[in-house]
Write a structure and sequence with these properties.
This protein is α+β, with helices and mostly antiparallel strands. The protein is 30% helix and 36% strand. It is built from four helices and seven strands, in the order αββαββαβαββ. The chain has a four-stranded antiparallel beta sheet. Helix 2 packs antiparallel against helix 3. The longest helix has 26 residues. The radius of gyration is 32 Å and the shape is elongated. The two termini are 41 Å apart.
Length: 228
């Protein structure tokens, strides 16, 4: 009877609990590279005059000419965006004060414009046309891809694959194997930097040519795996 009772108790007592899984935390990185299919060019039109009306009129004239030149290239009006417009006044010092050497006085108008080009081949032509219209500064050219989400998705898939490879290597080195994904956290997306700053005071006699480079998107994911 005692032997039978012992056997029953042995069956009822649960087996030793399985050890909790080991957690492996890794960060994977992925890069997606593609040739750009669009570009954004930043322009500034700066004008000065003794009256506000004259400074504004000159600025408007240059802007209208620039817009007309760009539209003649096929740039839509919606892709010519004024991002800032400032009117400032610097009064001339009254006697006995004397004007500072090289200091300009009067009314100043600064208008900043971003132009989106959906054909990268137009970048050089757009710069020349804008300079011919009286644009005083070209702030830079930033190339990009129109399908940003698609490019980021490719980078994310590469980041997940990188994380998985790291986790499997660590698990194998520790004599374990991956059993599940416990948590995934998305990291960052790197924005491609703009091209170096350029200045333009007049149309160049030789046409401007700017060759686009491949645009990269970077993504990172931190993934926690359970391994046993």
């Amino acid at each position: 009877m005692r032997i039978l009772t012992a056997l029953v108790l042995a069956v009822l007592v649960p087996a030793t609990a399985q050890a909790a899984p080991t957690q492996i935390v890794v960060t994977g990185e992925g890069i997606a590279s593609a040739m750009p299919d669009m570009a954004t060019v930043s322009f500034t039109i700066s004008t000065a005059a003794s009256t506000a009306a004259a400074a504004m009129s000159e600025n408007n004239s240059r802007y209208n000419k620039m817009a007309a030149n760009l539209q003649a290239l096929g740039v839509a009006s919606a892709d010519i965006q004024t991002t800032s417009y400032n009117l400032n006044y610097s009064p001339r010092p009254a006697p006995p004060d004397v004007p500072a050497p090289g200091q300009r006085y009067g009314y100043f108008v600064d208008r900043s414009i971003d132009v989106t080009l959906h054909r990268t081949a137009l970048v050089g032509k757009a710069i020349d046309e804008a300079a011919a219209a009286g644009v005083t500064d070209i702030g830079g050219v930033a190339f990009g891809v129109s399908d940003r989400k698609g490019q980021l998705a490719i980078a994310l898939r590469a980041a997940v694959s990188d994380a998985r490879l790291q986790a499997q290597s660590l698990a194998t080195a520790a004599g374990l194997h991956i059993v599940r994904v416990r948590k995934i956290e998305q990291g960052y997306q790197a924005v491609p930097p703009p091209q170096p700053m350029m200045k333009a005071m007049a149309a160049a006699p030789v046409p401007t040519q700017i060759q686009p480079n491949a645009v990269q998107s970077r993504a990172a994911v931190t993934i926690t795996y359970d391994a046993q």
